[in-house]
Specification:
By secondary structure, the protein is an alpha/beta fold. Helix content is 25%, strand content 31%. Strands 5-4-2-1-6-3-7 form a 7-stranded mixed sheet. The relative contact order is 0.27.
Length: 118
C-alpha cells in the first residue's frame, strides 16, 4: 500500500508538505499508520498541499483534515484513499478495493473527519 507521510511543522498556517511511501502489509514489520476517512466535497475552491515537493490540488475538506492532523514534532503516516490509490490505474484500483478491509483492520486507528468546528 501507499502511505501519505505528513511532515511536522511549528507553523500551522504553512503549506502541508507530504511524501508518499510504499509499505507492505504482508511482512512481519507491519507499517504503523492511521486511515483517514472523510466526505469529499468538490464544491468551492480547491486546497493545496505538496507531495514530494510538487503542488497538488485537493478538496478543502481534505486540506483542512490534514492541517488539523499534522503534528508539530513528528511525521504522521496516513492512508488516504484519494491520495494513496491511483484510480486511473484499473488494476491498482481493483487490487486496493479487494484489500480495503485489511487496510482498515491493521491500521492503528481510523479517523473519521466530519469537518472543522463551526
Amino acid at each position: 500500500i501507499r502511505l501519505l507521510r505528513i511532515h511536522p511543522t511549528e507553523d500551522p498556517a504553512s503549506i502541508i508538505k507530504c511524501d508518499i511511501e510504499s509499505a507492505s502489509v504482508f511482512t512481519n514489520l507491519m507499517p504503523v499508520y492511521e486511515v483517514l476517512s472523510f466526505v469529499s466535497e468538490e464544491d468551492g475552491e480547491p486546497g493545496n498541499i505538496q507531495i514530494g515537493g510538487c503542488n497538488v490540488q485537493v478538496t478543502m475538506t481534505l486540506e483542512s483534515a490534514l492541517r488539523n492532523l499534522r503534528e508539530k514534532e513528528r511525521t504522521r503516516s496516513l492512508w488516504v484513499r484519494q491520495l494513496c490509490v491511483q484510480d486511473r490505474n484499473a488494476f491498482e484500483h481493483v487490487h486496493t478495493l479487494e484489500r480495503l478491509l485489511l487496510i482498515h483492520k491493521i491500521a492503528q486507528r481510523v479517523i473519521i473527519w466530519i469537518g472543522d468546528e463551526s
